[in-house]
Amino acid sequence: MLDKIYVALIHYPTYNKHHEVVTTAVTNVDIHDIARVCKTYGIKGYYVVNNLVAQQNIVKRVLRYWLEGFGVEYNHTRTEALENVKLVSFIEDVIKDIIKIEGEKPIFITTSARSHEKKLVSFEEMRKRVRVETHPILFGLGTGWGLAEEVVEMSNFLLEPIRGVSEYNHLSVRAAASIIIDRIISERSDMYG
């Protein structure tokens, strides 16, 4: 069912280009743009996952401006999109919050630009599943050079990578979020099959 879908933008644990586990930096535009996509497609909640206090303060400042400050009067549609954003430290906090809201653990689907054999699910299969699934669903989006293996291991499924028409494969997370959500949730998603 499409009324219990959640998205998490995960900054920790992720990889840097040297394949070291790091916390990636929050970007203002990721907060805004993914929130707007989530609002447009009826996503129930959007979580920003970052364990560093300095990075959390950036998210809090952005949210405060648009939810309580001048931004409320300046652009009410931005305020509306950001109302469903929650800031948490760890992916486990997201799962606990969804359990609190829904009364059950979500099916956790991670994403990756890298190919993995394990738990791989196609967009077509996931489109069909979200329309009949009664459990909540959580899509975890990685930042930096992708989600750390421990997060992928926590997941129930790994969504197939987005493939373009060239060898270049470094979409921004907000672009990837838009493509993934549209392919899975759009009323016209059958055109991608």
Would you spell out the secondary-structure blueprint of this structure?
Layout (H helix, E strand, L loop, with lengths): L4 E6 L3 E2 L5 E2 L5 H13 L4 E5 L3 H15 L2 H5 L1 H7 L2 E4 L2 H12 L4 E5 L8 E2 L1 H10 L4 E6 L6 H6 L2 E3 L13 H13 L8
Helix pairs in contact: 1-4, 1-8, 6-8
Task: Describe the protein's architecture and organization.
The chain has 193 residues and is an alpha/beta fold. The chain has one domain: SPOUT methyltransferase, trefoil knot domain (Alpha/beta knot, 3-Layer(aba) Sandwich), CATH 3.40.1280.10. Helices cover 42% and strands 18% of the residues. It contains eight helices and nine strands. It has a seven-stranded parallel beta sheet, with helices on both faces. A hairpin with a 5-residue loop joins strand 2 and strand 3. It is globular. The chain starts with a strand and ends in an 8-residue tail after the last helix. The model has no long low-confidence stretch (mean pLDDT 92).
Compact summary:
By secondary structure, the chain is α/β, with parallel strands linked by helices. The chain has helices at residues 28-40, 53-67, 70-74, 76-82, 91-102, 123-132, 149-154, 173-185; strands at 5-10, 14-15, 21-22, 45-49, 85-88, 107-111, 120-121, 137-142, 157-159. The model has no long low-confidence stretch (mean pLDDT 92).
